[in-house]
Amino acid sequence: GDSVTQMEGPVTLSEEAFLTINCTYTATGYPSLFWYVQYPGEGLQLLLKATKADDKGSNKGFEATYRKETTSFHLEKGSVQVSDSAVYFCALSDYGGSQGNLIFGKGTKLSVKP
Amino acid sequence: DTAVSQTPKYLVTQMGNDKSIKCEQNLGHDTMYWYKQDSKKFLKIMFSYNNKELIINETVPNRFSPKSPDKAHLNLHINSLELGDSAVYFCASSQGRGSTEQFFGPGTRLTVL
User: Fold this and answer.
1) Measuring CA to CA, which residue among A105, A98, A76, A106 is closest to residue A28?
2) Chain A touched by B14 (CB under 8 Å)
């Protein structure tokens, strides 16, 4: 079945460091890809998404490009802030196969130190 | 205005009890979901409702029964609670299925003693 694999955490960075969180997927159809963020004690919020190959999603300085050839959707940010500390989830939605539910990776906890 | 709300935020109960978690969305969406997040933060879909009809039930024990009185509400009732049911439960909604964004509630932390 469809699945999402993302890098294990926790990831600890200093403020203004470059961030990459790797995400790869397996899907039989043509999934849409998402990054969700969960701040401490809160629910998930959509950070960015891409719905087809070569699309780039971006928001709040974060970017991810839908790479069909490598089945990847890595999250990047050029300069992280303390306020970016959260758990980041990569997810796919394959409405052709799984009736549209989101399949999540296991989450990567990011801690940014001042 | 809260888009997706859940009550209660925290729920502590004894094994064997029956409890309910309520979810409401004011976004006018036609699809609602329940997810379970375990202690390692892993999220898994439990149920999905589209226009009040169940469309997903991902091998959840039948002690869990979702109820959707209307398309703005999706409640989760759990019978005979077990220790392993301790988790954070998230409600979410979306307009349609597939590539659309899902909006999540703040979660309900259930602790079974």
Assistant:
1) A98
2) no
End-to-end CA distance of chain B: 34
| Count of C-beta atoms within a 10 Å radius of residue A53 | 12
- Express each pLDDT in A27-48 by its tens digit: 887 888 999 999 988 889 999 9
Burial class of residue B1 in the structure, from the number of CB atoms within 10 Å of its CB (0-12 exposed, 13-18 middle, 19+ buried): exposed
Nearest to A49 among B41, B55, B101 (CB): B101
Cβ-based contacts of B23 with chain A (< 8 Å): none
Q: How far is A108 from chain B (nearest CA, A)?
A: 9
Q: SS3 for A20?
A: strand
Distance CA B30, CA B52 (A): 8
Reported for A49-54, long-range contacts at CB under 8 A and 24+ positions apart, including other chains, are A49/B99, A49/B101, A51/B99
Arithmetic mean of pLDDT, B54-73: 85
Report pLDDT digits (tens) over B85-101: 999 999 999 887 655 78
> Is the distance from CB of A62 to CB of A74 less than 8 angstroms?
no
- Residue among A34, A43, A49 whose CB faces B106 most closely: A43
Q: Are the C-beta atoms of A58 and A46 separated by less than 8 Å?
A: no
